[in-house]
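Input record (one chain):
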Amino acid sequence: MENFDVAVIGGGPGGYVAAIRAAQLGNKTVLIEKDKVGGTCLNRGCIPTKALLHSAEVYQKMLYADKLGLSAENISFDYSKIAARKDDIVNRLISGVQGLLRAHKVTLLNGNAVLAGNTLINVGDMQVQADKIILATGSVPSGISVKGIETSGVMNSDGVLSLTQLPDSAVIIGGGVIGMEIASLFNALGKAVTVIEMLPSILTGMDEQICSTMTRVLEKKGIQIYTNAKVTEIKKGLSVVFEIDGKQSEVQGAVCVVAVGRRPATAHIGLEEAGIKMEHGCVLVDEYMRTTVPNIYAIGDITGKIQLAHAASAQGLIAAHNAGGQNKRMSYDIIPSCIYTSPEIASVGLTEAQARAKSIYFKTGTFNVAANGRSMIIGAKDGFAKVVTDAATGEILGAQIMAPHATDMISEIAAIMKSEGTIEELSDTIHPHPTISEIIMEAAHDVHGLCCHKTDLV
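The corresponding structure, as predicted from the sequence alone:
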C-alpha cells in the first residue's frame, strides 16, 4: 500500500486538473483512471464532437464557394478520414495530458477505484491510502425506457462518435445540447435528420429567442423537429413511434440516437462504505466542494451542479486548494455555456425569463447578426446578441449570443460580469471594426436606445 496526500478518482477535465493543482501545491498526488485520461470531454464529448463539426462546417463552406466568387468542383467527403482526424486530435491531447501529469510528478494509476473507507481506495489488487480524496468520476449517457430500445441501430452519443461511416439518415431522441450538435453534424454532411423532443422547445433552459431562432434556422436547413412529443416505441427497421397530443406518428432513420442527457457515474465506487450522502442521484457537496465526509471532495458531473467541462475544471481547482488547507468557495453565477451548432450559441448569467422570475427590474439590448459588416462578409445572416442588465444599477446580469464565433466571444461578457462591470463600461469599450464582436457593443448601446446601426428600426 502506498500513501499519498491527495488521491483523485477520475481523470477527466475536473480530475486531472485537480491532480495537477494539488501537486503544484506541494502534495504527493495520485490520479486513478479506469480508462483514458481526459474523461468524457476529451474522449467522448467536447473535443471529438467539435472536431467532427469543424469538418462539417468546412464542407458546407466549400459547397457554397461560388457565392464567394470561387470555383470548386466535385465537392465530397470521406467520413472515415473525418473520423480518423478526430481520433488523431483526441490521441494527441491525451498524450498532452499524460505529459502534464508526468511533468508535475502526479502518479497515474490505471484501474477501477473503489472507496474502502474515508482514506482507503482499492484499485484492482492494490490499495492506496490518501489523507484527502477528490471524487471526479463524471457521468454516462442517460437512457430511456421504451419498447424496442435494444433494437440494433439504436445508439447514444458514444455510439455516434465511434462511427467510421455516416448513415444516410438519423432520428434523434432529445433536443438538448447533445442532440442538436449531433443533428447539426448529420445535416451539414447532407444526411436526413429528425429530432423528437418531449418538452415544448428544443434547447430548454436557454433564452426563448435563442430557442425559437435556432428552431427556425434548423428547420430551414431541412431538419424536422417535433416538440411536445413522447416516444412510445422503436420498431425493427428503426421506425420511431411517438405521440403528440394523443396522436401517434412514426419516423424512420438508418440509426436512432438517444440523446436525453447524462447521469452521474456514482455506481460501484464505494460511496456508501465511505459514508458519503447523495441527493437526487448526485453526490452532495457544499460550496467548498466537500462531501458529507470532511476529507473527501467531489467535483464535476457527479455533483449535479453544471455538466460542463470548464465548470468541472473550476471545481477541481477549488477542491485541490481546499484539500491543501485553504478555504476557497465555488460560485456558479458566471459560468459560460456553449453550443456548437451553426450558428454557434453561447450564454452566461441570467436570461430575461430568469431575471423576470427573480422579480428583477431589468433592461435588455439586442443587435442582429444580419446588420453586422463582418457577418455579411462571411455570409452569416442568422443570430443576434442580447445583453440583460439591472435597470437600476446598470449591472450586467447576463448575455446570450447566437452568431459565428459566439463561443469565443462570450468570455468578454463573463470577464466584465466577474469584475462587476456595468453596461456603460461595456458600451464605452471600443470594439475593433470590422468584427463580429461589434454586435456585443451594439447590443450594449441598444439597452439605452442609442444603437446607431440597428436596422430593424427603419
